[in-house]
Amino acid sequence: MVTLLIRDIDSGSEATADVSAGLVTVGSDSTNDIVLEFDGVAGHHCEIEGDGTRWIVRDYATTSGTLVANKRVQGEVAWRAGQELRIGKCVLTLVEDAPEELPAPEPEPELLATPRPAVDRAAVAYKAKIREYLVDHPDVKRLIHASLDDAKMRESLKRLIREAAATIDVPRPKSLSDASLDNEMVDEILGLGPIEDLMRDETITEVMVNHWDTILIERAGHGIERAERAFLDEDHLVETIRRMLAPLGRHLNESSPLVDARLKDGTRINAVIPPVAISGAVLTLRKFSKQPFTMEKLVGLGSLPPTAAELLRTAVRMRLNMVVSGGTGTGKTSFLNALAALIPGHERMVVIEDTHELRFDAHPNCVYLEARPANLEGKNAIPIRRLVINALRMRPDRIIVGECRGDETFDMLQAMNTGHMGSMTTVHANSPRDALLRIENMTLMAGYELPAQAIRTQVVSALNVVVQLSRCGSKGERRVSSIAEIGGMEGSTPTMQDLYRLDGTRLVPTGAVPRFLQKVDQRERTRLIRAFGMNQS
After folding, report:
1. What CA–CA distances, in Å, run from 395 to 348, 386, 389, 412?
2. Fewer beta carbons within 10 Å, N or C terminal of the chain?
3. Is 313 helix (H, G, I), strand (E, B) or coil?
4. Rg of the Cα trace of the chain?
5. Could you tell me which of 61, 41, 50, 1 has the C-alpha nearest to residue 23?
6. Whole-prediction pTM value?
7. 447 vs 141, 322, 417, CA distance in Å?
8. How far apart are CA 302 and CA 331, in angstroms?
9. pLDDT tens-digit profile of 466-496?
């Protein structure tokens, strides 16, 4: 066990806390794990993370700073027992206690990194025999093509399943009840087999099939868990994927082993088969809520505070060009949906996406365009860039591009710089400044021989606000980690100021007053600064 000794420099009084393992936050605010109510200690000052043998100290960019061994922490540093950690008028020291005899640890629960779960092979073999019987049965083919409602179709299929069970010369495993066999085989014939009920579960946001006997899910955006089910075999998985793609007119075979598409219910499907997928077919399904996210819902979920939401509403109302930046799975599309939903109904929106995901059902003047991949001959593709160029001829007030990832970035910037103010897009980047650099690099993909300084100037001129998203905490909660305003250029370097940034686990205003408020009168400016939770300087 490791004890944290806390000493007040002025009085010499001491206290202790346990930091054996895990993450501990330190500051004067009562929400911290260790509360230090002393001069020079910020509300959320720093955090200490350890595993019982080594520790890391991270400073939250405080004014007074955090010192380890009399050296100021820049970002994070390693900390070991015996070294002094100074925060304001407090000195913290790690003290290692004598090791104790501990009982043998209990077996840990199975983790995702462990081998694939054991599959009930007897049940799999039995269902495969039932499937063989049903595949060529004339009554099954007749039922599939008959115009029956779902209930009658299922009941008729269950009768055929019982007939198959009585016919095949294989004993039924005890793990398979009549009801489970009926439901699983009906889902196999009419639906998506073992993932059918996962697709119906509205709390599940992602279904990932890494192998025919390894299915993972992400539930409501909170971590990945294993689903204890499996396809019958590799052929069963590939057949299910092809059944999902058939209504879309998309093909999956050795000459075209990759598919990225949208199902009729809006679910995004990505499938990869050999020879590209080394260990067998891989299927990824991203589901979207039937009710799109709103800014109010994001505030309720804790993604950002109400004051930050009010700042973004004002930015949309003032027609600022905005970029939502973040890594994969941080919720960029959902946040863009909530942001663009704030656009007034009298303005015409043209929404352009690689795969249709954004929805603005309540907006009376919205047009959706979706890129088209090449056909089997490699022809007739319609890329995002062509759609952006076409959108300029559709009299848009604002252009919303689901994601800029290539040469279309150049045309998007041109649109923002030529009267289509208030346009929005998303990019993959780890910080607001990285987002600007990535946009600059993608602009070069357009093939124009422009000086880097000219492109950088165009980027800075076109964009006003960058909203950065991150996944935080052990469960990977999606949150806004910063809101930055682009100010201009100093020499060849773009200038930015953070309006909001994370202080520990909270998104707080930095105190910087947005430059875009210079466009409003003093009375309105004062009101908005108060609404944004900022102190007027």
Report:
1. 8, 16, 12, 15
2. C
3. helix
4. 29
5. 50
6. 0.66
7. 54, 24, 19
8. 13
9. 999 998 876 678 899 999 999 988 888 899 9
